[in-house]
Amino acid sequence: MEYFPAPLEKLVEQFARLPGIGGKSAQRLAFHVLNLPMEEAQTFADAIVDAKRSVTLCPVCRNLTAGGLCSICADPKRDETVICVVADPRDVLAIERSREFNGHYHVLHGVLSPMNHVGPDDLQIKSLLDRVAQGGIQEVIMATNPDTEGEATALYIARLLKPFGVKVTRLAYGIPVGGHLEFADDATLMRALEGRREL
To answer: Domains in the chain: how many in total?
Structure first.
């Protein structure tokens, strides 16, 4: 039984398809959009269509761009000898917020996940190998998440990069700042001990 008119039900269904949006949140968003003035609703709809139409992948790093090179690849001040490999464009933003990394990126657009039918050919691995094969790269930092799929992806790519003679490193991870040792799991404590450094 439909409680709302069919167009509103359809709008709720579309919002509910977004990641992290449940039924109640989808209804809230749909009602918000419905209450917008017509010009604002049209602007919102146009922004979605325009983003879908004009956002593409950078031909070098496969990050999102509005055409041509992304701003990071186009920046001559960045260190071209270091590539940080991430799974998702949002990971680039996370690392950039730290203001500690000055190299280039390579976005895989996912991680290896046999359970979800994601294999090497579904990711941007070949384009990474092509970049490294061109020479000039001294280090590749694997910055995939420290979960099963992220670890498997990092190890798989590290094996593929071995013949090129580049240094392959992995982000260190362990106890978060502000965290307590008593709440850390065994794997996190193990990684924290392995990644310890001199003060």
So the answer is: 2
